[in-house]
Amino acid sequence: MEIEIRQGLASDAAQTTPLILNAAQSLLTSIFGHNKNKTADGYLSHAWELGGGQYGFNNHWVACTGDEVLGVVTAWHSKLGAAFDRATLDSITSYFTLDEAMTVLMRNQTVAVNLTPPTNTELMIGHLSVEESARRTGVGSMLIDAMHERAKKLNKRKLVLDVEVSNVSAIRFYQHHEFEEESINKGFIRFARKV
Question: Is 73 exposed, middle or buried (0-12, 13-18, 19+ CB in 10 A)?
């Protein structure tokens, strides 16, 4: 099976949305999924298709074979700036009503205070998830390697990521890929790996 790593496309939404949700289901559902008609996966699909911001296809890479998406990852860095934040906000306010959007933003802020954004020398990865049928085939490793190469191109010194303390399988995966624990903050472990 030949696997290609490429930037996400709007048309990948149906395959990537469940993967992103799987990467942090309880967390994303607690932020975006409290309205029975406006679910976390509905928002994630909407945001993916818009392209920009934290959940848009422009900021994600997929591992695929043909048209089948096997895995997904995203990466953030300090130079994304205001346009990135604005696109994330626009995706929220165009999906949720104003009152719902305010509630979503407050829930998100409750989580965000416990997470440290990447420094100028770091590339932060997230949303790493592999289709269940493709696990233990090297897809996750390929996505990590692709982000490692991206970090080199951006002249970053470290890859960093945050994992919920309760996500034991993800912790083991990152430890296996030479990430080392840097800190623990309110239920999240910050892992880092030199580039």
Answer: buried
